[in-house]
Amino acid sequence: MSSLPLSSAPRLRLLTPDTHNIEIDLVYATDLNLTGKVIYQQAHCLLLEPACAGLEKAIALAAGMGLRIKVFDGYRPPEAQQALWDFLPDPTFIADPRKGSNHARGVAIDLTLVDADNNELDMGTGFDEAVAESGHHHPNVPPEAQRNRMLLLGTMLAAGFTANPNEWWHYQLPNPTQYALLSDGADGVPRMMS
């Protein structure tokens, strides 16, 4: 597995379809996201090593059910978090950059499950859909989508993650604030913020 060298910072690992047998659709590296603009300068899917280890457990659990994981986002630079906050300053769905996003710590991941044909399982709402129905256990979500959400939730909890109650797609390591915030350097390599 690849990793990017970081001086005096926790190691971020590069996730690819080849190294992790996952699908990757970094929507913030395109204009097909809630802002309609490209947010990421680099299209790298990164996670801090402990989060990567948890994801590897989730990948194995999903494979045991004949499913795969599709990742929408991992490490998110604070600059990108600010762009999202500027577009939608709603702490229900976007972490206030002044408080720090767990994505900017490299310990949060946005994902879904796909079947053997790489079709996303129906989760009732789309990724990053900023509506109440995106929350886990919302009563307006159809039964099949609720079962799919529970399947994803069970997989991720068993792999050691915690869930964001407002977003069916968002998972993070427990006690995420124990990890330092990271910021992209001029060379695009994430470093601990001073």
From TrEMBL:
InterPro entries: A_A_dipeptidase, Zn_M74/Hedgehog-like. This is D-alanyl-D-alanine dipeptidase. The gene is ddpX. The keyword Zinc applies. Belongs to the peptidase M15D family. GO terms for molecular function: D-Ala-D-Ala dipeptidase activity; metallopeptidase activity; zinc ion binding. Its EC number is 3.4.13.22. The record marks 76 as: Transition state stabilizer. Gene3D superfamilies: 3.30.1380.10. The active site is at 167 (proton donor/acceptor). It comes from Pigmentiphaga aceris. PANTHER family: D-ALANYL-D-ALANINE DIPEPTIDASE. Signal peptide: none annotated. SUPFAM superfamilies: Hedgehog/DD-peptidase. Binds 1 zinc ion per subunit. Zn(2+) binds at residues 103, 110, 170. It is an enzyme of class 3 (hydrolase).
